[in-house]
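Weekly structure sync, notes
Attendees: PL (lead), two postdocs, one rotation student
Agenda item 3: pending single-chain targets
PL asked that the sequence for the first pending target be pasted directly into the notes so everyone works from the same version. It is reproduced below exactly as submitted, 137 residues in total.
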Amino acid sequence: MYNDSSDGKEFLGAGIAFPFRLDAGAIAMNSYEDHVRQSILLILQTAKGERVMRPEFGAGLHNLIFEPVDPVTTARAKHEVEEALIRFEPRIDVLEVEVTVDPKEQYKLLINIQYRVRRTDTIFNLVYPFYLERGEL
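Predicted structure, written out during the meeting:
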């Protein structure tokens, strides 16, 4: 199923879907560009120090949870995301990261990431909502 090498996408990988879930009674899987997208989400959702064997892994956004909503916090979020994606996701080129405050919810940052999957030269956009107050989802 994932061994079609005619288009070169096997480099992008395949594996268990994140977050873990069942699909029709079987473990949900992902592949190729979706695998890359889920890897980006994993990087963004991982706090630095959370992984015992890789304490530097993650974007470190959790350090911003109680920070004020101001230009300094949005600039720090942008920097952390750019650095983490460049360091931990070699299958993409980060084209742009833009962090804005959600106009409807003042404590929610919208992290807009535009990236290119190197192998397929396909451009994707991902908007990651990040809450500055703990306990909101």
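Discussion points:
- Confidence is low (pLDDT under 50) at residues 1-5.
- The chain has one domain: 9-131.
Action: rotation student to compare against the earlier draft before next sync.
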